[in-house]
Amino acid sequence: MTLGQIVAGGSPVAGQSASWPIEFVSYVFSGFLLAGALTAVQITVLAMSAGLVLGLGLALVRLSSVAPLRAAAWTYIWMVRGTPQLLQLVFIYDALPLIGLKFDSFTTAVVGFALNEAAFSAEIIRGGIVSVSRNQSIAAASLGMGRFLTLRRIILPQAMRAITPGVTNDTIGMLKLSSIASVIFVNELTFRAQQIVGQNFKFFTVFCAAGAIYLAMTSAISLLQGWVERHFDPERNRSQPRVPLLRRAVGRLRGGVPEPVEQTAGPCPADLYVIETDAADLHNVIGSDDVAAGIGQPVLVSSDVRKAYSGREVLSGIELTVNRGEVVAVLGPSGSGKSTFLRLISHLESVDWGEIVLDGRHVGYERRGEALKPVSGLAKARADARIGMVFQHFDLFNHLTAIENVIEAPIRVHGLTRSEAKVLGVRLLAAVGLLAHADDLPHRLSGGQQQRVAIARALAIRPRLMLFDEPTSALDPELVGEVLAVIRRLADAGMTMIVVTHEVRFAREVADRVVFMDDGKVIEEGPAAQVIDNPQQPRTRRFLRRVVQSESFEAEEIAAGAGS
To answer: Could you give the CA distance from residue 276 to residue 491 in angstroms, rounded to a whole number?
Structure first.
C-alpha cells in the first residue's frame, strides 16, 4: 500500500469508510510501514553485530594487564555512555564530513548505533567473563589451550547465560531507539508513521499500528533469547546418538569387529558398559613411546626454585629430582607451597628464581644470558611438554559432558580427528569406570566421579608427567577410595606422578618416595616407609601425628555411619 492510499483512507480502497479495527489492521500490514520496520531491523542487525564484536574487544582490553590499554578502553566507555545517542548521531552525520568522512543516512545510523552499543555491550560481556571461575581458564591452560581458544571454547559458552539477558535488552532497546535516526532522515518505521500522521492526523490508529509492529519484532527477539538461553543451559538434557560410536569403540577395546547397528538416540544398553581395563591395558591407553623409555632416569629436575607473592616468599629454594616411572608423594601443612610448586612445574605460574627442567628442556622458558624469560608461545610450550594436571576442586568444564571434557584438548590442541578422539575418550572413561556417564554433564556426577573424569581428561593428552594437587581433599571420606584406586592403577601402569596429598596411608602404599614440605622448603625426603614410619625431623613428626589422628577419626566416623 502506498503512502497516498494510506493517507486517503487507511484501507486498500481510497475513501472507503472502515471501522477502527479494520483500519488498524490495514496500517499494521501496510507495505509502507513494513518497509520502515525492515529498515529498523537492518539497522539493528548490522549495528548489534558490529557493536558486539567491538564490545568483545573492549571487554578484553578492560581485562588486560596493561594499564594504559585499560584506561583507554574505560575512557571510551565513559564518554559514550555519558553522552546522548542523538548527539552522537548528529556528530557523525555533520562533524565527520569536515575531516573528509562522509556517510549516507543509513550508514551513519549503523555506525552510530554500533559505536554506542560497543560501550554498553563491553561491560555486559566483561561481567559475563568475570562471572566464570578463573579456575576454568587455569584448567584449560594446563591442557595447552591458548588464551583465545580458551575464551572461545571454555569461557564465552559459560558466560553466555549471564551475557544473553543484557544483550537482548540492548537489542530491543536499539530496535526501538532506531526511531531517533529520523533526525538524520533515516526513513524507518517511526518516521514513516509520522509522515502518515502529518497527512491524515490519525494519531491513535497509526501509532497503535506502529506499536503493534514494534511489539511483534521485539517478541521475536525475546523468543530468540529463550532459544539461546536453552542452548547454553548446562542443565538441559543432551541426549546424543552414541550407540554406534560406543559399539565401535568397545569392539576395538575387545579386539573384535562389532556388528553394524542402526543410528539410535538415547542411553546405550547396559551391556556396552561392561569393560574390564587392567593396569596393562591402561598403560596401552595412556602410553606413548617415551612414557616407558628410560625408567629410573631423571625426568624432572628442580634447582633452587623460588617464588614470592607481594614480597612474601612462598617457595625458598626447592631442590627435587623425579625419575621416570616414580611416584612421589608430597606432604605438608596448608600454605607450605605444595600447590604453588606444582603450578610452577606446568608453568601455570612463572618462576622467580632457579629453574625447572622436564626431560632436559624448560617448559615455556628460553635462556637469555643468565636469565630465563617466558617464551611468547607459552600455550604451545605447555602442550608440547604434555604435563597432565588434576586439581583439588576438579575444575571440569561445566558446559561440556564427561566425554567432551576428555576429548577437548586432543582435538583442539593436539590435532586428533573427532572420531579418533572419541575412541580415546571412550577408552579412558572405561579405564576410570565412567563410560556409563559419558554424556553426563559435571553437575550430574558425584565428587568422586567428577575427579575421575578430571583424571581421564588429563590422561587424554598422553602425559609424560602427571601432577595431582590434593585430588581427594574436596571429597567426602566415602568417595576418596574410588579416586585413589584410579591413581593406584596409574602407578601400576608406570606413570610418573607427583601427588600432593594428605592421605598418609595412600602415600605409604603407593609412593616410591615421600617429600615433606613446610614453609616453602623441602624439610625431609626419602622412601615412603622411612619418612612416614620413622621421620627424622621434628616438624615432620608433628605433622604426621596430626594427620594420622585425623585419619583414624574419619575411619571411625565412617564405620559408625555404616553400622547405624
So the answer is: 18
Residue for grid cell 538415547: 266
d(CA 97, CA 116): 19
How many residues are there in the chain? 564
CA quadruple 334, 336, 338, 341: dihedral, nearest 10: 140
Q: How far is CA 416 from CA 407, 411, 413, 482, 498, in A?
A: 9, 5, 8, 30, 27
The tens digit of pLDDT for each residue in 280-309 reads: 456 666 654 455 556 778 899 999 999 999
* Residue range 355-367, pLDDT digits in tens: 999 988 999 898 8
Of the candidates 562, 457, 543, the one whose C-alpha atom is nearest the C-alpha of residue 501 is 543
Dihedrals phi, psi of 432, to nearest 5 degrees: -100, 10
Q: What are the cell numbers at 218?
A: 521485539
In angstroms, the Cα distances linking 390 to 351, 393, 456, 477 are 20, 9, 9, 18
Q: Which three cell numbers stand for residue 192?
A: 514513516
Q: Is residue 64 part of a domain?
A: yes
407 located within any domain = no
Q: Which of 287, 233, 227, 273 is nearest to 460 (CA)?
A: 287
CA distance 385 to 284: 20
Rounded to whole angstroms, the Cα distance separating 555 from 40 reads: 69
Q: Is residue 457 scored above 50 in pLDDT?
A: yes
Q: Which helix (H) or strand (E) holds 526?
A: strand 521-527
Domain of 194, in residue numbers: 3-231
The set of cell numbers assigned to 209 is 499500528
Say if CB 347 and CB 382 are below 8 A apart.
Answer: yes
Report if residue 50 sits inside a domain: yes
Distance in angstroms (rounded) separating the CA atoms of residues 303 and 25: 81
229 burial (CB, 10 Å; 0-12 / 13-18 / 19+) is middle
Roughly what angle, to the nearest 10 degrees, separates helices 378-385 and 134-142? 60
The helix (H) or strand (E) run that includes residue 523 is strand 521-527
Answer for the pair 118, 108: CB distance below 8 angstroms, yes or no. no
| Contact by Cβ (8 Å): 318, 302 | yes
- Give the position of cell 555486559: 124
* Number of domains the chain contains: 1
Which of helix, strand or coil describes residue 30? coil
Q: Give exposure, 538-559, as e/b (b: 16+ Cβ within 10 Å).
A: ebbeebbeebeeebeeeeeeee
Alpha-carbon gap, residue 165 to 171, rounded angstroms: 10
Determine the average pLDDT of the residues in 48-72: 95
Show the cell assigned to 398: 561445566
CATH code of residue 104: 1.10.3720.10
The overall pTM is greater than 0.85: no
Q: Is residue 356 part of a domain?
A: no
Cell of 255: 579386539
- Which residues on neighbouring strands pair with residue 513, listed in sequence order? 328, 527
CA distances 503 to 191, 214, 332, 469, Å, are 73, 64, 11, 12
Report the Cα 447 to chain-centroid distance in Å.
Answer: 19
Contact indicator for 250, 426 with CB cutoff of 8 Å: yes
